[in-house]
Amino acid sequence: MRRLVNVTDQVETPLDAWRGDWGNSYNTRNAPDADNIAARRSLFRTIFQHLPIADLNSILEVGANVGANLIVLPPVGAIYATEPNDQARQQLISNLLHPLNVCGDAAHMLHWPDGHIDLVFTSGVLIHIPPHMLEASCRQIVRVARRWVLAIEYFSKEPREVRYRGQDGMLWTMDYGAYYLDRFPELKPVAAGFAWQRLTGLDDLNWWLLEKRQ
After folding, report:
1. Per-residue model confidence as pLDDT tens digits over 43-86
2. Under a CB-based contact definition with an 8 Å cutoff, are residues 184 and 154 in contact?
3. How far apart are CA 168 and CA 161, in angstroms?
4. Which of 36, 102, 148, 186 has the fewest CB atoms in 10 Å of its CB?
């Protein structure tokens, strides 16, 4: 794994950085305001038009940060979150979720049983997983999902690394929908779309909704 220097000038792996001061700085920098929450609500409303809400009883966000996405999800039976950063995880517990529904799992080591959660999704998380860890992380997401997998991530047609806040080894872009489909034949595409920054106020994001073959 490529090593990097984070904001404290300590040499760490990317996951260590997100768990430490680098991740704490991200929490502060990306604290959602009312406009951001409204934009996320609109995005998820568009995505969830392609889902039978009546059949959706549980949702897991992998890498939920402070829960800006969870706020705008439709009411379902149970909402779960993983978040490796202690500070963000405590905010989730204080503001949104029961402690038993929140854990510090990284994407490559989810503890839920096979097919335990109806919909498992990431938003701006796969882009920060090093390429050599990506397949293991996606495999865990697919394993835990009962029916749907959703990825909301940056897109590029060819995989490439992007320097992120002055650091290498922290962000990669690719066609994440194709990545899932090429490796997990049990998945089929349902819908996809693009959230344009000029229109939404969010980053330029692609989303891919995939369904497990029954």
Report:
1. 999 999 999 988 899 999 999 999 999 999 998 999 999 999 99
2. no
3. 8
4. 186
Contact between 186 and 213 (Cβ < 8 Å)? yes
Phi-psi region of 115 (alpha: psi -120 to 50; beta: other; left: phi over 0): left
φ/ψ of residue 150, rounded to 5? -125, 130
Handedness of CA 152, 105, 143, 126 (dihedral sign): positive
